[in-house]
Write a structure and sequence with these properties.
The complex is a heterodimer. Chain A is mostly helical. Chain A is about 75% helix and about 0% strand. Chain A has one domain: Up-down Bundle (3 helical TM bundles of succinate and fumarate reductases). Chain A is elongated. By secondary structure, chain B is mostly helical. The chains are: A mainly alpha, B mainly alpha. At the A-B interface, helix 2, helix 3, helix 4 and helix 5 of A face helix 2, helix 3, helix 4 and helix 5 of B. Chain A: One of its GO terms (cellular component) is membrane.
Chain lengths: ~130, ~130
């Protein structure tokens, strides 16, 4: 018997997919929470890193950001961050933009922006780490 | 479908501007606004990291901007948005496990959020100015 009880009107086909009427299920809802939990400690580490880097010269900043632990934490922060912000912005767009064409255009731009910023940060962190 | 007579004659529920603002409502709006601000603020992180990865000259330009009055104001706003959204996120996670819905709990959490974000933001900047 399904979790919806024996009076569920869902067909067995719908039930095995478990994705609801939107067809996407709770994937975004859950991912938003997982990234949120990850971002609690990662944001605190990020703040400490920025405090340590503030006002320092180029060599000191490069050494700090090139430190393996710092670089890994920054990569995790950027990864969880852009994933979290992409879902958040998608919710905002879907709440306020109802016409299909502008909505889809903004959703695509949201994806582009999130991936571009994430990749730019990750590339810079890796370049600093490998010291080229 | 949208202009069928049945739809257009339906009564509409009052929209946001009908209600007198109250604390938890303001905090909900602030959570979304700070989230949107942090989305754009990711560009600051890109500029900082790419600047550091591009060499001493690039990093000097980034430091000049971040150190200017406008840069410092933007960074201060970013810090507050980050901390406010972080605490607000924890508030949401508390709600997700089914706690904090009581009339007192939700008001107290909202107050803690706004006061905590201001205090922590100032604290972070004081520490950053001492450490540098």
């Amino acid at each position: 018997m399904s979790v919806f009880g024996k009076f569920s009107i869902q067909t067995p086909y719908k039930r095995v997919h478990g994705l609801g009427s939107a067809g996407a299920g709770t994937e975004h809802f859950w991912k938003q929470r997982v990234t949120a939990v990850a971002l609690i400690p990662l944001t605190l580490v990020f703040v400490v890193v920025v405090i340590l880097a503030a006002g320092k010269d180029y060599d000191a900043a490069r050494r700090l950001l090139g430190n393996p632990f710092v670089a890994l934490m920054m990569l995790l922060f950027v990864g969880a961050g852009v994933s979290h912000m992409r879902i958040g912005m998608q919710v905002i767009i879907e709440d306020y933009v109802h016409e299909d064409v502008p909505k889809i255009a903004l959703l695509v731009l949201n994806t582009f922006f999130s991936i571009a910023t994430g990749l730019a940060c990750a590339f810079a962190i890796l370049k600093l780490s490998f010291g080229v | 479908m949208a202009d069928s007579p049945v739809r257009t004659q339906r009564p509409l529920s009052p929209h946001l501007q009908i209600f007198t603002p109250y604390l938890t409502m303001v905090m909900s709006i602030l959570h979304r606004i700070t989230g949107g601000a942090l989305y754009v603020g990711t560009l600051l992180l890109v500029v900082w990291l790419i600047g550091a990865a591009s060499g001493p000259a690039g990093y000097a330009r980034v430091q000049w901007f971040m150190g200017s009055i406008i840069g410092q104001l933007i960074l201060f706003g970013y810090t507050w948005a980050l901390i406010h959204h972080l605490i607000g996120g924890v508030r949401h996670l508390v709600w997700d496990v089914g706690l904090g819905f009581g009339p007192e709990a939700r008001e107290n959490m909202a107050r803690l959020n706004i006061i905590g974000s201001i205090v922590l933001t100032i604290l972070i900047w004081v520490v950053a100015l001492i450490v540098r």
